[in-house]
Amino acid sequence: MKQIAEGIFYETAWDGANVGAISTGEGIVLMDSPMWPRDAREWKGQLARVSSESAIFLINTDYHFDHIMTDCLLCDRVIAHSLAEAGFLAQDGEVFGQLADTFFPDIDEESRHEVRELRSVSP
């Protein structure tokens, strides 16, 4: 994780989406989610080490699975463009699992299982 200004952080080390966070004094606003559950847990841990604030919003820049799959592990209040809502609602753990298997056929069994347990959070 890198800090680019006071309270503004980003991470680019993981597969899928690059992620960001802004500490507002009232809570953290997240931008996109890491693709894999293990990375989402690591991101959450990194943020906890630099701020005592909880995530209050998560902004998704698109509805592709690599940006939204782990939203449910980070925040229940998702913001996205209104036209993206159908894309969110069309995806669930089963769809996430199929996409992960298709694009990442060598995914480890633990990640494969965790992905199938995820749920989409409607914006």
Describe what this molecule looks like in 3D.
This protein has 123 residues and is α/β, with parallel strands linked by helices. The chain has 6 helices and 6 strands. A 6-stranded mixed sheet has the order 1-2-3-4-5-6, with no helix packed on it. β4, α1 and β5 (55-59) form a beta-alpha-beta unit. The longest helix has 14 residues, at 37-50. It is globular, with a radius of gyration of 14 Å. The protein starts with a strand and ends in a 6-residue tail after the last helix. The model has no long low-confidence stretch (mean pLDDT 92).
List the helices and strands and how they pair.
Blueprint: E1 2-5, E2 8-11, E3 19-23, E4 28-31, H1 37-50, E5 55-59, H2 65-68, H3 71-74, E6 78-79, H4 85-89, H5 93-103, H6 109-117
Parallel strand pairs: 4-5, 5-6
Antiparallel strand pairs: 1-2, 2-3, 3-4
Helix pairs in contact: 5-6
Features:
123 residues, alpha/beta, six-stranded mixed sheet
The SS-based structural class is: alpha/beta
Strand sequence of the main sheet, in spatial order?
1-2-3-4-5-6
Q: Can you give the helix content as a percent range?
A: 25-40%
Q: What integer value in Å does the Rg equal?
A: 14 Å
Largest sheet: 6 strands, mixed
Q: Please, what is the average pLDDT?
A: 92
How many helices in DSSP terms? 6
> Whole-Å distance between the termini?
26 Å
General form: globular
| SSE succession | EEEEHEHHEHHH
Count the E strands: 6
